[in-house]
Amino acid sequence: MQNQHNLTPNCHSKHKFDNLLCGSILLSASLYIGFWQYSKIVSKVKWLEILSGSVYELINIIWWGVVILILMVAALVKIPKEFVVSILGDGKGLSGKIRATITRVLLDLCLIKF
After folding, report:
1. 3-state secondary structure of 102
2. Cβ-based burial of 31 (10 A; exposed 0-12, middle 13-18, buried ≥19)
3. Can you say whether the dihedral through the CA atoms of 20, 26, 32, 38 is positive or negative?
4. CA distances from 3 to 31, 107, 113 (A)
5. How far is CA 12 from the centre of its chain?
6. Which DSSP category does 79 fall into?
7. Long-range CB contacts (< 8 A, 24+ apart) of 61-68?
8. For 45, which DSSP code?
9. What is the spatial distance between Cα 88 and Cα 98, in angstroms, rounded to a whole number?
């Protein structure tokens, strides 16, 4: 009997072009640059000024969080899987449930490879 886990695709099996991610990045970058460099032109269309201004402010507020996220994921890749599993413990009690929840989030984000 084959292992069912090997039959199901995971996020590491194939590299597909992500239209939603690339489209969102392109749209956000366009709105950011449009508000930053071409604010006089953008201000002529009210909804575009509001949208691009909101994107500009949002990116200026959260850029450091994105940098920290990239650094944390890079650090997590360098940590051995056995060390992470040993920290998470046996899964009994309230602390075990909290650890299991954290583990599930990390697994869903494909940060831990099993």
Report:
1. helix
2. buried
3. negative
4. 47, 19, 16
5. 15
6. S
7. none
8. S
9. 9
Q: Assess whether pLDDT exceeds 60 at residue 65.
A: yes
Tokens of 77: 């890749």
The predicted-structure confidence for 3-47, as pLDDT tens digits, reads as follows 444 545 555 556 778 899 899 999 999 999 999 999 899 999 999
Rounded distance between C-alpha atoms, residue 29 and residue 96, angstroms = 42
The Cα-based distances of 68 to 1, 19, 56, 73 in angstroms read: 43, 25, 19, 9
pTM of this structure = 0.55
Residue type present at position 101: T
- Quote the percentage of the chain above a pLDDT of 90: 37
Q: Residue ranges of the domains in the chain?
A: 16-76, 79-114
Of 102, 71, 72, the residue nearest 87 (C-alpha): 102
